[in-house]
Specification:
By secondary structure, this protein is α+β, with helices and mostly antiparallel strands. The protein is built from 26 helices and 28 strands. It has an eleven-stranded mixed beta sheet, covered by helices on one side. Strands 24-4-5-26-27 form a five-stranded antiparallel beta sheet. A four-stranded mixed beta sheet has the order 16-17-11-21, covered by helices on one side. α3 crosses α7, α3 crosses α9 and α19 crosses α20.
C-alpha cells in the first residue's frame, strides 16, 4: 500500500489543509471529518444502478485507473464515477469556462471572462447538438453522465474546493460533456479572431509588399513533411516603406549611461493570454489582492511576449525500418497550460465481451468518456494542434435599415439575444449578443465595422464522440477514416498500426472555402466568399508511409500545395521545433522508445545559435568592451552558454532576452500605425516574425531603422542595455548578487498551480501547487517548456508492444490534496524519467456492482 514517505506527506497535507480551511472560516470541530469524507473510494464494493454487470476499477501506485467490464456503456459509467470522485471541481471549471458561467462559482471577478465566453453561446449550442447525436453516442454519453453524478453522490462530502468557496456542486448534464469539448476549442483556437484581425489590419494599413514581408507564409526554418520551406520575402525598398525621420545624435555615445550602456523607454506589450482553460492568471500576472504566490514575479516583460505563442505540441511516427524492434512507434507530447491536477487522467479501459478482450490505454479528459490519445494494441495515435484555418471573420456590410446587414439573400436584421450572467454573490449583468447567419459579432474593427465569427465550433459536426471509435480501430486506414469524422478542435493526427504502417491526417472538420483563402477578414455579403460545407473523409489530406519512414508535427506547416489549400493558414508556429525534431529523428537509424523520449526532452538551443553568434560578432565587440568593462562578463557568459536552455545557463538567458527585446523595438516601430489604429493590435500574433527580423538585423537597411537610433549597431547596443537593466531589476528583486546567477532557471521556474491557489495567501497556496522546480527547455525546441506551459503528457508507444512503452505527465492524477495520488508522477515528469505506459501492479480494487 502507501509508502512511509507517502503517509508522511499525507499527514502534513492534512494539517496544512486544515489550516487553510480554518482560515476560510470553516469551523474546526468537523473540518478533518469533512476532508476525509471527500476522498474518493479506492477499495471495496459499491452497488449502483449505473452498471448492468460488475465492473472492476483498479489503481496502481500512480493512481492510474484500469476499468474492466463487459460493455462500453458500463466502462463509460465507471470512468465517469472515477472522474467525478477525483476531479469534479476541475470538470466543473471546464464546463463553466466555455459556458461563460465561472462567476457563478468563483464570484464577480470572473465576469469579464464570462463575457468573452458567453458571446459564443456554447451552452445553448451544446444542449441543441446533444439532442441530435446518433443513438450509440448518446447512450455512451448518458451512461457517462450517470456515472459522474453517481460518483459525486457517493462522496460523503463535497470536494474541498466547494468548501472553500462555500458553494455546492451542480450535477452533471449531458450537454456539459460537449461544453468540455468547447473548452478545448477556446484553449486551442480561442485566439484566432485576434490573429486574423491583426493580419487584416496590417493588410489594410501597410503597403502590400510590406505586409507580405512582415506577415510571411513561412521562413527558412520550416520543415514540412510534404514540400519545401517557404522563403522569407525580400525587404521592401525605401520607395515602398521608410521610417524616414532619422534623428542623428539622439543616442548618447557608448558609456554615457554609466554602468549600463543606454536607457530605453520602449513600451512593453502585455503578456499574451495564457493557454489554459482555467480561471487563474499567467505566471507573473498580479493576483487578486496580491496574495498569491505569483504576485511578485518579476518576469512579465516585453521580451516574453515575443516568444510565448511559439510553444506547442509535438508528435511523430517512426516506421519499423528505423526502430530497434522493427515495429512502428508513435511519440506524442501535447503542450497545454499546466495545472494541479493535470488536465489528463490516466486510464486503461478493458472490454471483455464475446470471448475476447479489448484494451485501450492512454489519457482521458475528465468531463468526457473518451480516450484522447493512446494505443489499443493494434493502433496507436497522438495529437498536436494543427494551426490550420478553422475560423473566419466576416465583415458585416450595413443594410438599408438600422441594425440590418447585407447577405447573399439581401438585408437581414441582426438578431439580438440577451444572456444573463449571475455571479455567486448575486451580482447580475445582462449581455446583449448580436447574432448573424454566420455567427455572433465578436469585434468592431478600426473602421467601426462589425466582424462576425464563422467558426467550425458553431456547427453540429464540430462536437461529437466519434473519437471513441479509435478504441477498436484495427488498421491505419480505419483510424484515418475515423479521424475525418471526429468532432473536435482540428488536430494533426499521427498514427501507426501493428502491421507497420504510419500516417498523418487532420482529425476534425475541414471547411470548404470558395472565393478566398480565409487569411484576412472579408465581406460575405455578395455570396462570392463563403463556406460550402465540409470535406468528405475521402477528400482529407493524408500522408501514408513516406519514403523517409518518419512523420513529424510541431504546430508548424506539415504539407504543401493542394493539401495545404485544404487545411488553410491559421497561424502556423515558426519551424525551429519541427526542424529540430526532424533532424533528431533522421539521426536515429534504429531508435528505441527511450531514444524517442530523449527527442522529446531535447533542449538544445539550435534556434538561438545564430543570435548568440550575432551578439558575439556585432554587439559584444572588443570596442564595446573597451567602453564598458561590464560587458566582459556578459561576453564570457554568452561564450560559455552551453548551447542549451539549461536552468544553470546565464548565457542562454542573455541571448534569449536580447533577441526578444530587439524584436520588440524593431516591430513596434514598423507597426506603429497599426497599433495607433487599434489598441488591441499586437504584432506578436504574427507567428513567422523571425524571418523578417533576421533579414533586418543582418542586412541593416537604413530606411527600416527606428528613428531614435542613428545605426543598427546603436539599436542592438541599446537592446543589450535593456537586457542588463532588466537583469539588474530582477536580480535585486530575487537577491541575486551577480549576473552569472541570473540564469535561465530563474526565469523558467515552474508555476504549476491549483486553480484556487492564486486566491489564497502565499503561505497556504504553496502546499496546493507543484514544487517550484527550475525547468530546462523553451518555446522553440522539442522540450517546449515555460513556467506554466509545457508537455501535459509524454507518450512513446508501439501498438502491440505497449509493455515497452513510456508515459509520464505533470500535476498528478488526483485533484484531492490528501490523496496519495496528488502530484503522483510529477517528479518523473520534471526529471524526464521514463515510467511505464501500461498500469503497474494493482494496489487498490473497487467493484461496482449492479443493483
Amino acid at each position: 500500500m502507501a509508502t512511509g514517505f507517502t503517509r508522511k506527506i499525507f499527514k502534513v497535507s492534512v494539517l496544512l489543509l486544515l489550516v487553510i480551511l480554518l482560515a476560510a472560516g470553516i469551523g474546526s470541530g468537523y473540518v478533518l471529518k469533512k476532508l476525509k469524507q471527500s476522498l474518493p473510494e479506492l477499495e471495496g464494493e459499491i452497488t449502483s444502478e449505473i452498471v448492468s454487470l460488475p465492473v472492476k476499477v483498479e489503481r496502481d501506485n500512480l493512481g492510474t485507473v484500469t476499468v474492466s467490464g463487459s460493455s462500453r456503456t458500463d466502462l463509460a459509467a465507471a470512468l465517469g464515477f472515477c472522474h467525478a470522485q477525483e476531479r469534479y471541481f476541475h470538470m466543473d471549471l471546464l464546463r463553466r469556462k466555455s459556458a461563460g458561467e465561472l462567476s457563478g462559482l468563483v464570484g464577480p471577478a470572473a465576469i469579464p471572462a464570462d463575457r468573452e465566453a458567453r458571446i459564443h453561446r456554447f451552452r445553448s449550442r451544446a444542449r441543441e447538438f446533444a439532442g441530435t447525436m446518433p443513438t450509440p453516442e448518446k447512450e455512451l454519453l448518458l451512461s457517462y453522465v450517470k456515472g459522474v453524478n453517481a460518483g459525486l453522490s457517493a462522496l460523503d462530502e463535497k470536494p474541498f474546493e466547494y468548501l472553500l468557496l462555500k458553494q455546492d456542486p451542480v450535477p452533471w448534464k449531458i450537454e456539459d460533456t460537449l461544453l468540455v469539448v468547447y473548452a478545448m476549442y477556446l484553449d486551442l483556437q480561442g485566439d484566432y479572431p485576434a490573429m486574423e484581425s491583426a493580419r487584416g489590419l496590417m493588410h489594410d494599413l501597410l503597403p502590400r509588399e510590406m505586409f507580405r514581408f512582415l506577415a510571411p507564409d513561412g521562413t527558412e526554418w520550416e520543415a514540412p513533411v510534404d514540400g519545401e520551406p517557404f522563403a522569407t520575402p525580400d525587404i521592401p525598398g525605401p520607395e515602398v516603406f521608410s521610417l524616414a525621420s532619422f534623428v542623428t545624435g539622439s543616442i548618447p555615445a557608448p558609456g554615457v549611461a554609466g554602468n549600463i550602456l543606454f536607457s530605453s523607454d520602449a513600451p512593453a506589450a502585455p503578456y499574451p493570454p495564457r493557454s489554459t482553460a482555467f480561471p487563474y492568471p499567467h505566471p507573473g500576472a498580479p493576483t487578486p489582492g496580491g496574495a498569491g504566490r505569483g504576485s511578485a514575479h518579476p518576469h512579465s516583460t516585453v521580451a516574453s511576449s515575443y516568444s510565448a505563442l511559439q510553444a506547442g505540441s509535438n508528435n511523430w511516427a517512426v516506421s519499423g525500418r528505423h526502430t530497434v524492434h522493427g515495429k512502428p512507434v508513435v511519440a506524442d507530447d501535447m503542450h497545454l497550460g499546466l495545472m494541479v491536477p493535470n488536465i489528463w487522467f490516466r486510464a486503461s479501459l478493458v472490454l471483455s465481451a464475446a470471448a475476447r478482450e479489448q484494451r485501450v490505454t492512454g489519457v482521458t479528459l475528465p468531463g468526457t468518456p473518451l480516450v484522447i490519445a493512446g494505443s489499443n494494441g493494434k493502433v496507436a495515435w497522438g495529437f498536436t494542434n494543427s494551426q490550420g484555418d478553422w475560423l473566419d471573420l466576416v465583415i458585416l456590410e450595413p443594410g438599408p435599415d438600422e441594425d440590418t446587414y447585407m447577405t447573399p439573400k439581401g438585408p437581414l436584421p441582426l438578431k439580438r439575444i440577451e444572456e444573463k450572467i449571475i455571479a455567486s454573490d448575486g451580482t447580475e449583468e445582462v449581455l446583449e449578443i448580436e447574432e448573424t447567419i454566420w455567427g455572433p459579432v465578436v469585434k468592431t474593427d478600426y473602421q467601426g465595422r462589425k466582424l462576425a465569427a464563422r467558426w467550425v465550433a458553431y456547427d453540429p459536426n464540430g462536437v461529437n464522440l466519434r473519437l471513441s471509435q479509435l478504441e477498436t480501430a484495427s488498421s491505419l486506414e480505419e483510424a484515418l477514416d475515423i479521424a475525418a469524422r471526429c468532432g473536435l478542435p482540428a488536430q494533426n493526427f499521427t498514427v501507426a498500426d501493428r502491421d507497420g504502417n504510419i500516417g498523418w491526417t487532420i482529425c476534425g472538420p475541414i471547411p470548404v472555402r470558395s472565393g478566398y483563402d480565409g487569411r484576412i477578414p472579408r465581406s460575405w455579403a455578395s455570396g462570392e466568399n463563403a463556406w460550402e460545407g465540409y470535406l468528405e473523409p475521402d477528400e482529407y489530406p493524408r500522408i501514408l508511409n513516406p519514403e523517409g519512414g518518419r512523420i513529424w508535427t510541431a504546430n508548424a506547416r506539415v504539407v504543401s500545395g493542394e493539401m495545404l489549400e485544404k487545411v488553410g493558414f491559421g497561424g502556423y508556429a515558426l519551424g525551429p521545433r519541427a526542424r529540430q525534431i526532424r533532424d533528431d529523428l533522421f539521426a536515429l537509424d534504429k531508435a528505441s522508445e527511450k531514444d524517442l523520449l530523449e527527442v522529446q526532452l531535447d533542449h538544445r538551443a539550435v534556434f538561438l545559435e545564430r543570435w548568440r553568434n550575432l551578439l558575439l560578432e556585432d554587439v559584444l565587440t572588443p570596442d564595446a568592451l573597451l567602453v564598458n568593462s561590464k560587458l566582459e562578463e556578459v561576453r564570457r557568459l554568452v561564450e560559455d552558454w552551453g548551447a542549451k536552455a539549461s536552468p544553470d545557463s546565464a548565457g542562454y538567458q542573455i541571448v534569449r532576452r536580447f533577441r526578444n527585446i530587439l524584436a520588440a523595438r524593431v516591430f513596434e516601430a514598423l507597426t506603429a500605425e497599426c497599433r495607433e489604429a487599434d489598441e488591441d493590435f499586437h504584432y506578436y500574433r504574427v507567428s513567422q516574425s523571425e524571418g523578417p527580423l533576421w533579414k533586418l538585423v543582418t542586412e541593416k537597411p537604413r530606411h527600416m531603422l527606428p528613428a531614435e537610433y542613428d545605426s543598427w549597431d546603436a539599436l542592438m547596443l541599446s537592446a543589450m542595455d535593456k537586457v542588463l537593466t532588466e537583469a539588474q531589476v530582477e536580480m535585486d528583486a530575487l537577491g541575486i548578487g551577480s549576473l552569472s546567477g541570473w540564469t535561465w532557471g530563474v526565469r523558467n521556474t515552474a508555476e504549476i498551480r491549483h486553480p484556487l491557489s492564486p486566491f489564497l495567501p502565499a503561505f497556504f497556496s504553496r502546499y496546493l501547487d507543484a514544487p517550484r522546480d527550475q525547468l530546462p527547455g523553451d518555446s522553440r525546441m522539442p522540450r517546449a517548456q515555460g513556467p506554466g506551459f509545457g508537455a501535459s503528457e509524454r507518450m512513446v508507444v508501439s501498438p502491440g508492444l505497449e509493455e515497452q512503452g513510456i508515459f509520464h505527465m505533470p500535476g498528478g492524477q488526483s485533484g484531492h490534496p490528501l490523496s496519495p495520488f496528488y502530484l503522483s508522477g510529477h517528479a518523473d515528469w520534471v526529471q524526464g524519467s521514463p515510467t511505464p505506459f501500461l498500469p503497474g501492479e494493482t494496489l487498490y480494487t473497487l467493484m461496482l456492482l449492479p443493483m
